[in-house]
Design goal:
Number of domains of chain B: 1
Shape of chain B: globular
Order of helices and strands of chain B: HHHHHHEEHHHHHHHH
Largest sheet of chain A: 6 strands, mixed
Number of strands of chain B: 2
Number of helices of chain B: 14
CATH architecture of the largest domain in chain A: 3-Layer(aba) Sandwich
Strand content of chain B: under 5%
Oligomer: heterodimer
Number of helices of chain A: 10
Helix content of chain A: 25-40%
Strand order of the largest sheet of chain A: 6-7-8-3-9-10
Radius of gyration of chain A: 19 Å
CATH architecture of chain B: Orthogonal Bundle
Largest sheet of chain B: 2 strands, antiparallel
Helix content of chain B: over 70%
Chain lengths: 270, 342
């Protein structure tokens, strides 16, 4: 067998906002079954990449190709996902969380995850109005699957509480549960450890490995360098919308360009 | 479980109500009007309540439904069984026709377009005299008759007085109520709530925002048209004045008063404001004020709610689907295992 195809291929992506070039010629591959990190100083374009991958933005130029793990007996096919709408992208198997938590805050914890099941379920207007048998069965499976993911992140006790009543760390976990409920092949985490205390961060480390064990590939944006260096197998470093380094953490740490991006200007100010 | 008996009790009272001694034609008329507005409030609630879309043109669909029913009856004597679906579908159709191009607009712009739509409907009804007789109104609509003569030649029942309309209104209310409750607690309803809460997050869960907004618009418009259809066959006279913007505002006021997104709240809001309208109809002339001054009162109510109770009197708490047996079972399980460790 040849080397596995990348799950996601970001190929020479450019994104322009008016006169601002937010991303310039960014390329990287996401290999299946790994944890990879996307790092860089504030404003480097990390979230812009996420938004391009998930369909919130359409890249000005370049290709983003997804190769979902093939069903048995079929060959893997790449799907061009740049320009697709977010709801189509999530159905193809890319889920995400947000930098500033975006929960459905006045709904219950369970409902948040149940909405995550939307793209994997199908009952419609008629089913809902007539409460058809198929609709009722589907509702039961939605609850089962949702509770499974709530257990996975450790929030099942709070299932029927309003999402807004959760602590900050738990809200981040709920967002992850909601994303996992969409059954993604690739999960994009946007600063999952932001605002977490050391204990919560340690729990998050475990959770991310558990997600990997479920067969979900993880790409995360994170500023907590200790966490990133510890859990990521591969890092992509952005600065001013350009990829300045790409490789395993050990190599990245000593890359002069990375040191300059992070410390150069910081040292100059100090 | 007192909550369990609430609905049967309510139904029993409603069924017996018209037979009580004090239920004269006036009382029955007002209660039937309350039911029409409850249906309207539940229909409107789908947009601002479930989806977070401010619709100021809801009365337009009410008018479309009423005139569809009225014209079909006057010109063609169409039977109830065909007229009701025709009016509802016509209303829903206009909902989709209006929604398709405008739902890409956001917030205030969308509200303005819906407002414009309601005005257009009134202008159309006023000026297309060949069809609607314009400001002269549309008199001579037949009362409802239930024709079951295909089963037995004697089974033709023509509605007379307020009592049969009360029961028909009750049936309509029950139908819409059950439909709304079912929609709210379904994959569709959750998608709407997700859109209301956070559009980007909803899209990231796979909700096709645009499609679900259009469905919401169609359903809301269809319910409005259903109420209009009943109204036409009940009052037996239609005029364009009945469907002015103020009606939209009144219905919105009911929904906000009860708490956006709360089906029960919308119904209570309708009851309160219609009752208030009846009181004002007596009180205002005594104060030497014109009857239209009641909108001043509605406006004041709206301002006070927004200032002091922005979530309405019955704010919707995070408990959608609480009555669903699946959720009840889950709650019981959770309580049993209460205190399970992480």
């Amino acid at each position: 067998m040849t080397a596995p195809a990348p799950l996601l291929k970001v190929d020479q992506v450019y994104k322009r906002f008016g006169g601002l070039m937010a991303l310039t010629d960014v390329s990287f591959d996401i290999m299946p079954g790994r944890i990879q990190g996307l790092i860089g100083p504030n404003g480097a374009g990390k979230t812009t990449i996420f938004n391009c991958i998930t369909g919130v933005y359409k890249p000005t130029q370049g290709e983003i190709l997804l190769t979902p793990p093939p069903a048995s007996g079929t060959t893997a096919e790449s799907i061009r996902i740049n320009g697709k709408k977010p709801d189509k992208v999530v159905a193809l198997g890319i889920a995400r969380t947000f930098q500033n938590i975006r929960l459905f805050s006045s709904l219950t914890v369970l409902d948040n995850v149940r909405i995550g099941r939307h793209c994997r379920t199908s009952s419609n207007l008629v089913g809902a109005m007539l409460r058809l048998g198929s609709q009722r069965r589907e509702e039961a499976t939605i609850i089962d699957a949702s509770m499974k993911w709530l257990k996975f992140v450790g929030l099942e006790r709070h299932a029927l509480a309003p999402a807004s009543s959760l602590s900050y760390g738990d809200q981040r976990r709920l967002e992850i549960a909601r994303a996992l409920a969409t059954e993604p092949a690739l999960l994009l985490l946007d600063e999952p450890a932001a605002g977490m205390n050391p204990r919560e961060t340690a729990d998050l480390d475990q959770l991310i490995h558990a997600i990997l064990d479920e067969g979900v590939t993880v790409l995360l944006i994170e500023h907590d360098m200790k966490l990133v260096m510890k859990i990521c197998e591969q890092l992509i470093v952005l600065d001013h919308g350009e990829r300045i380094a790409y490789g395993p953490p050990a190599a990245i740490k000593d890359d002069p360009k990375v040191v300059e991006a992070y410390l150069g200007r910081g040292a100059a100010h100090a | 479980m007192p909550k369990k008996f609430l609905l049967p009790l309510f139904l029993a009272v409603a069924l017996v109500f018209p037979l009580l001694p004090f239920a004269n034609d006036y009382v029955l008329h007002v209660v039937t009007l309350v039911m029409v507005y409850m249906v309207l409030a539940m229909g409107l609630n789908v947009l601002p309540g479930f989806c977070g879309l401010l619709d100021l043109g809801f009365v337009g669909f009410y008018g479309v439904g009423a005139y569809t029913a009225g014209l079909l009856t006057v010109h063609y004597g169409v039977s109830l069984w065909i007229m009701v679906p025709a009016a509802v579908l016509n209303g829903a159709l206009w909902g989709v026709v209006l929604g398709a191009p405008t739902l890409r607009l956001s917030g205030d712009y969308f509200a303005i377009v819906t407002f414009g739509f309601a005005e257009l409907v009134v202008l159309f009804l006023t000026n297309e005299i060949w069809l609607t007789r314009g400001p002269l109104g549309l008199p001579g609509i037949d009362p409802v008759s239930v024709d079951l003569s295909f089963l037995n030649p004697a089974w033709i029942y023509e509605f007379e007085g307020e009592r049969p309309y009360f029961y028909l209104g009750l049936a309509m209310l029950a139908l819409v109520y059950v439909t709304m409750r079912r929609l709210e607690d379904s994959r569709l309803g959750r998608a709407w709530l997700a859109i209301r809460e956070d559009q980007l997050a909803a899209a990231s869960c796979g909700v096709n925002i645009y499609a679900y907004k259009i469905i919401a618009f169609g359903i809301s418009a269809g319910v409005g048209a259903l109420a209009g259809c009943f109204f036409a066959r009940w009052t037996l006279f239609l005029s364009p004045d009945m469907f002015k913007f103020w009606e939209s505002f009144l219905i919105l006021c009911m929904v906000v008063l009860g708490g956006l997104g709360n089906i029960h709240g919308a119904m209570v809001g309708a009851a309160i404001l219609i009752a208030l309208g009846e009181v004002l109809r007596v009180v205002l002339p005594q104060l030497g004020l014109p009857n239209e001054a009641r909108f001043l009162v509605y406006g004041l109510i709206m301002i006070f709610i927004m200032r002091f109770k922005p979530k309405g009197f019955f704010p919707k708490i995070a408990a959608a689907g609480e009555a669903n047996p699946l959720i009840k079972r889950l709650r019981a399980q959770l309580e049993q295992h209460g205190g399970t460790s992480r």
